[in-house]
Amino acid sequence: MVKLEIDNREIRVETGTTILQAARMNGIAIPTLCYHEALEPYAACRLCVVELASARGKLVAACAQPCEEGMDVLTSSPRVQNSRRITAELLMASGAHLPLVEAIAQAMGVQWARYSLPANDCILCGLCVRACDELVGARAISLVKRGLEKQVAAPFEIASAACIGCATCALICPTGAIALADITPAPHSAHDPRTCRVCGEQSLPQKFADVEALLKEEVQPA
Fold this sequence. Notes:
- It contains seven helices and seven strands; from the N terminus they run E-E-H-E-E-E-H-H-H-E-E-H-H-H.
- By secondary structure, it is α+β, with helices and mostly antiparallel strands.
- It has two domains: 2-108, Ubiquitin-like (UB roll); 127-218, Alpha-Beta Plaits (2-Layer Sandwich).
- Strands 2-1-5-3-4 form a five-stranded mixed sheet, with helices on both faces.
- Strand 3 and strand 4 (58-61) form a beta hairpin.
- Mean pLDDT is 87; it is low at 185-189.
C-alpha cells in the first residue's frame, strides 16, 4: 500500500494503482477522453492531467501515472485548468460540431477556439485502434501518417485481411466517427465493390468475385 494526498485528502491505495483509478475510487472527478477501463493507459488526450505539487508542479497524465508514497496531487489547480482548456480548444478546432467535444468545452469553460481546421468526426483518441489490438487481437487498423494528416486506417494504408467484422471499433468510438455501416457493408450482389471504410477490407462477396475473376484469367488459353 502507498499513501498520498489528492486535493488535500489522504488516500491509501495498492501499489500500481494509477492516480486516475485512486481518484475515481474516492469520488474525485478527473475528465478523460482516451481512457477505457478495459484498455492499457494511452495518455494521448491529456484531458486527465493533474499537478504534482510534490514534484515542483509537474503536470502528468493521471491515467498513466502510478501512485507513489508521499505524492501530493492537485486535480483542479490553475495550471491544470489552463492545460485542459487548451486541450479543449484543440479538440474544438476540428470537432466543435461533435456533442462530446461541445460538452467537454463547456465543462472547461471554453466557448470558442482560436484555431480552425476542417471538420472531422475522428478526434484521434486511439480507442478503436487499441481495442482492435488489445481486446480483439486482430490489429486490422492503425494510426497512420503524422501531424494534421494523421488518421485511422489499415496499417501502411494497405487493405487488411485481419478484420473479422466484430465492430468493436464502432462500439468503442466515443464520437460516432465509425459506424456499423462502415464495418459491415450490406452487399446487394456477389459483385458489390464496397469495402470496409475503416480497414479497407472487402466484403466477402467481393472477395469471392475477385477470386472467380482470377481463376478465369488463369484458365484462359495462352
